């Protein structure tokens, strides 16, 4: 097994079942990902439910291609893996397991808040993806999403 995948939690047949691929370009986020990914309740659920102990922060991709954007819109409508908050002080989220650039296991996290951009995805991963991929603003990256 690839060493990076050894800590990846999945059930037999869970990851390599049905999937879609999204391709987007790296964009800066709002700078709130590091704080959110390290909240004890969120981190615990990311580990338990998504199999990801996240590096502080998120890796953001903007989806521009119309075909991939349609796939993303369809993904928003799927149930996903629920990430409920401990109180109304925080937003709920849902997630999907992913494989970034065919190398790095992680998860897309969709914050369930009104007005959240429908063309952007936030990815959590155990490693700092920008440096691990050598990606800069505008770099194109593909993500395989497990349905």
Summarize the structure.
By secondary structure, this protein is of the alpha+beta class. It has helices at 33-37, 40-50, 66-77, 129-133, and strands at 19-27, 59-62, 81-83, 93-100, 104-111, 120-124, 140-146.
Radius of gyration: 14 Å
Low-confidence stretches: 1-17
The chain-level structural class is alpha+beta
**How large a portion of the residues is in β-strands, by DSSP E?**
25-35%
Q: How would you explain this protein's 3D organization?
A:
The structure is a single chain. The protein has helices spanning 33-37, 40-50, 66-77, 129-133; strands spanning 19-27, 59-62, 81-83, 93-100, 104-111, 120-124, 140-146. It is built from 4 helices and 7 strands; from the N terminus they run βααβαββββαβ. It is α+β, with helices and mostly antiparallel strands and 147 residues long. The longest helix is centred in the middle third of the chain and has 12 residues, at 66-77. A 6-stranded antiparallel beta barrel has the order 1-2-6-5-4-7. 22% of the residues lie in helices and 30% in strands.
Q: What order do the helices and strands come in, and which of them pair?
A:
Layout: E1 19-27, H1 33-37, H2 40-50, E2 59-62, H3 66-77, E3 81-83, E4 93-100, E5 104-111, E6 120-124, H4 129-133, E7 140-146
Antiparallel strand pairs: 1-2, 1-7, 2-6, 3-4, 4-5, 4-7, 5-6
